[in-house]
Amino acid sequence: LVTWYHGHLSGRDAEKLLTDKGKAGSFLVRESQSKPGDFVLSPGGIQCLDSLSLRLKLIL
Questions:
Q1: Domain extents for the chain?
Q2: How does 27-52 read in b/e, with b if 16+ C-beta sit within 10 Å?
Q3: Nearest Cα to Cα of residue 34 among 13, 15, 6, 11
Q4: Tens digits of residue pLDDT in 5-54
Q5: Contact at 8 Å (CB) between 55 and 38?
Q6: Of 59, 43, 32, 36, nearest to 4 (Cα)?
Q7: If 0-12 CB within 10 Å is exposed, 13-18 middle and 19+ buried, where does residue 23 land?
Q8: Residue 27 in contact with residue 8, Cβ under 8 Å?
Q9: DSSP reduced 3-state for 44
Q10: What is the pLDDT of residue 58?
Q11: Which residues contact 37 (CB under 8 A, 6 or more apart)?
Q12: Rounded distance, CA 35 to CA 42, Å?
């Protein structure tokens, strides 16, 4: 079980979780609510960084 993947979590809830419990170097990955199929990487403990959108492609 990984601790960084949070599935269907809102941006606001991710920010609150990282603000309350995040340390420098912590992060979480969640499913994007605005772009289905994409993911969002949210850093914790770093005030100057915003979340990053990720699109993963499976190449066979």
A1: 11-54
A2: bbbbebeeeeeebbebbbeeeeeebe
A3: 11
A4: 999 999 899 988 888 877 778 889 999 998 888 888 888 876 655 666 76
A5: yes
A6: 43
A7: exposed
A8: no
A9: coil
A10: 60
A11: 55
A12: 15
Residue-level length of the chain? 60
Report the pLDDT value the prediction gives residue 6, as an integer from 0 to 100: 94
In this structure, what token pair is assigned to residue 42?
């949210």
pTM (predicted TM-score)? 0.73
Is 18 in contact with 44 (CB distance < 8 Å)? yes
Q: Which CATH superfamily is domain 11-54 in?
A: SH2 domain (3.30.505.10)
Interatomic CA distance for residues 35 and 33, integer angstroms: 6
Provide the pLDDT for residue 19: 84
CB atoms closer than 10 angstroms to residue 54: 12
